[in-house]
Amino acid sequence: RKEVEQDPGPFNVPEGATVAFNCTYSNSASQSFFWYRQDCRKEPKLLMSVYSSGNEDGRFTAQLNRASQYISLLIRDSKLSDSATYLCVVNPRYSGGYQKVTFGIGTKLQVIP
Amino acid sequence: DTAVSQTPKYLVTQMGNDKSIKCEQNLGHDTMYWYKQDSKKFLKIMFSYNNKELIINETVPNRFSPKSPDKAHLNLHINSLELGDSAVYFCASSQQGAHEQYFGPGTRLTVT
User: Fold this and answer.
1) Which pLDDT tens digit goes with each residue over B74-98?
2) Residues A103, A46 contacting (CB under 8 angstroms)
3) Mean of the pLDDT values across residues A9-29?
4) Contacts of residue A101 in chain B, CB cutoff 8 Å?
5) Hey, are the CB atoms on A46 and B100 less than 8 Å from each other?
6) Do B31 and A98 touch, CB atoms closer than 8 A?
7) How confident is the model at residue A93 (pLDDT cuts 50, 70, 90)?
8) Cβ–Cβ of A106/B41 closer than 8 Å?
């Protein structure tokens, strides 16, 4: 089983729709979780961290389910500018105090007019 | 005001050649990384340096050799390039213990 798994999509949704992505991870000792966004032919950029209690940033909501080992990202009122690939990032190990992250393959979102 | 920069942005070369990619960050971070993103868009960590010390070295052919002359720079040298090395290579930096990584714009390497 891969350390981090995502449905690569693409998810094609109309403007204004609500869309949700899930990401599962295999290492139950994972400590930190993030969503990054990558536009076509660009570098990944942090979208938001995922906290145990869930967190919201505007139209974006991230949640963590440790029991089932997955994180989710919900986007409400989708905009054309939300079209991108959303990368799930999990920190499965934390050896020696140094950060090591594992990226999922990403879920491609295409918002259509 | 570039935070993480890489040169070159594009690199086209023939099999068997040796090439280098340079990375610099002006964020004052103490940890830097090299990632490879292949044609399937999978982003995989290759190396990580903290204060010029190698701390992560994933299963990467020894044709790849990172070098960190100081904590603001992390270069990647590749010997005897192969077709399978074609990919986008991203440099990133972060503060140790912090979670947000800042990525450079990427170097698109094509080996012919």
Assistant:
1) 999 999 999 999 999 999 999 876 6
2) no
3) 93
4) 45, 101
5) yes
6) yes
7) low
8) yes
